[in-house]
Amino acid sequence: MQEINGEHLTIAAVATAVAPGQGGIAVIRLSGPQAQDAVRAVTCIPGDQPWASHRVLYGHVLAKGGVERIDEVLVVLMLAPRSFTGEDVVEIHCHGGVMAVQRVLERVLAQPGVRRAQPGEFSQRAVLNGRLDLTRAEAISDLVAARSQRAAQLAMAGVDGGVQQRIEMLRQRLLDQLSELEARVDFEEDLPPLDGEALLEELLDVRRALLQLVEDGQRSAALRQGLRVALVGRPNVGKSSLLNRLSRRERAIVTDLPGTTRDLLESEIVLEGVPITLLDTAGIRATQDAVEQIGIARSHDALVSADLVVLLFDLSDGWTADDESLRQLIPEGVPWLRVGNKADLVEGTGAAAAATADELEADVRFSAATGVGEAELVQGLLERCGALTDGALLLALNQRQGDLAAAAADALQRSQQVAADGLPWDFWTIDLRQAIQSLGEITGEELTESVLDRIFSRFCIGK
Ligand code: GDP
After folding, report:
1. Which residue's CA is minimally distant from atom 18 of ligand 1?
2. Atom of ligand 1 nearest to the CA of 242
3. Ligand 1: residues whose CB is within 6 Å?
4. Tell me, what's the pLDDT at 148?
5. CATH superfamily of 227-306+308-384
6. What is the pTM of this model?
7. Which of 199, 373, 405, 411 is 20 to 30 A removed from 384 (C-alpha atoms)?
8. CA dist., res. 414 & res. 391, Å (int)
9. Which fold is adopted by the domain 3-133?
10. What number does the ligand 1 atom closest to the CA of 368 have?
11. From ligand 1's centre to the CA of 124, what distance in Å?
12. Nearest atom (ligand 1) to Cα of 237
């Protein structure tokens, strides 16, 4: 069995989300050699229920002293190696909420050889024990964190092993070439001559495949992380109305986040599978002379950090000097969308309204009141941020995997230079090894301590 951090203690944590008054059950998970003993010590299991693997036991967790019942529980034993971590795992299914769960956890943690799990430590043990490959472990974490259906689907492709297979296949192709090269380095005269051109073509073919994966990963970043969209406009142009309409659009409204400041409201919605945090500067207009005051630091920060600014104006007023002042506040380089609202008011007058000298054409004509132009608004918004994916995206590398794939592609690029310079075979192997190493770090084939730490520290406790 593998040693982690030089010790081999049993770890324990609440594996389910903890929120007061929520959730019918909560699961406490233990993994390690003391798991079974620790749970036996704190529970009372009546009758002659056997402590057999993969069976459910019914009983109570008792407080210290063995009299007071803390909670009524189910206990599931999963003995090594048939468990998530590959070690003995015991789950205690308690009633949900916070108080009882914490007490049960404290009881378990008080047992000899048991300590609190670090974030991601269960998954880390699973990887170290060969129960789970690295990309799958990451995908599980992504699945847990997914904020939209599309993100969850992408993560699931990773859980199913899609990333692992693709990368491993490419890595194998490089390993094949490496062994050809190494044979030539050692036994050049005994072997048929190596076709350098074919070899190079194969390397570049792998490189192309890697670059495609990197690109797909970048395209999926919006799906995974979501977009920040700042909503800006003069008072009464219809910002709140737009927000309300978009929020109703999909069932998957996640939450109304309390604003980081009183003046900045954030709400989270999902558009076409892309999670979007809408930063509404509405609070600012209520108290201030909007145009001068919007320059205050925090709304400026919101604009700078936004992936997109939606500048809303009132079509029935046309594009006013105040609208223009707001436009000038949008930082250079931040994409923005000009949305004309209240299209219903200028309907019929259409051409006439657009004819006023200072009116600019809106990117999107919209009506928060009737919903006209809503589809165009959503489309325009996602397009402007480069978040429109064609649904064909089935697999996506996360940031870490993408960085490594890009590093591997760079190394392969260098081999082209080596070939062009007509250097001997052993020079080729340097870059090739580098590429293989990078791909091995993606799959976990080449694990180093720092790789593991970097990956699992992002996980949540109990995973
Ligand atoms: P905000 O100050 O920018 O948040 O604007 P509100 O959303 O509060 O809207 C200001 C007023 O304009 C309200 O009376 C809305 O009912 C009205 N309004 C908003 N959108 C439309 C629209 O598309 N058509 C019409 N006719 N009225 C609208």
Report:
1. 238
2. 7
3. 233, 235-241, 282, 285, 341-342, 344-345, 367-369
4. 73
5. P-loop containing nucleotide triphosphate hydrolases (3.40.50.300)
6. 0.66
7. 405
8. 34
9. Gyrase A; domain 2 (3.30.1360)
10. 23
11. 52
12. 3
Q: Which amino acid is at 214?
A: V
Distance 238 CA to ligand 1 centre (A): 4
Place of tokens 């430590």: 121
Which atom of ligand 1 is least distant from the CA of 243?
A: 7
* 341 C-alpha to ligand 1 centroid (Å): 8
Taking alpha carbons only, the member of 122, 151, 148, 125 closest to residue 139 is: 151
- Specify the residue with its C-alpha closest to ligand 1, atom 14: 236
Sign of the C-alpha dihedral computed for residues 266, 374, 362 and 334 taken in this order: positive
Domain spans of the chain, in order of start: 3-133, 143-222+395-443, 227-306+308-384
Residue 236 pLDDT > 90: no
Q: Residue 294: left (phi > 0), alpha (psi -120 to 50), or beta?
A: alpha
- Does residue 205 carry a pLDDT above 70? yes
User: What is the band of 404 on the pLDDT scale with cuts at 50, 70, 90?
Assistant: very high
Say if CB 75 and CB 59 are below 8 A apart: yes
Task: Find the 290 Cα to ligand 1 centroid distance in Å.
Answer: 16
Task: Give the least confident one: 29-43, 106-120, 372-386, 426-440.
Answer: 372-386
In 3D space, the residue among 227, 230, 310 whose CA is nearest the CA of residue 275 turns out to be 227
- Max CA distance (Å), the chain: 89
Task: Find the mean pLDDT for residues 391-401.
Answer: 76
Please report the atom of ligand 1 found closest to the CA of residue 234. Answer: 3
pLDDT for position 352: 47
Given a cut of 70, whether residue 260 has pLDDT beyond it is no
Residue 261 — pLDDT band, cuts 50, 70, 90?
A: very low
Residues facing 12 on adjacent strands = 30, 116
Give the pLDDT mean for 48-63. 96
Query: Does the structure show a pLDDT above 50 at 400?
Result: yes
Topology adopted by domain 143-222+395-443 = Four Helix Bundle (Hemerythrin (Met), subunit A) (1.20.120)
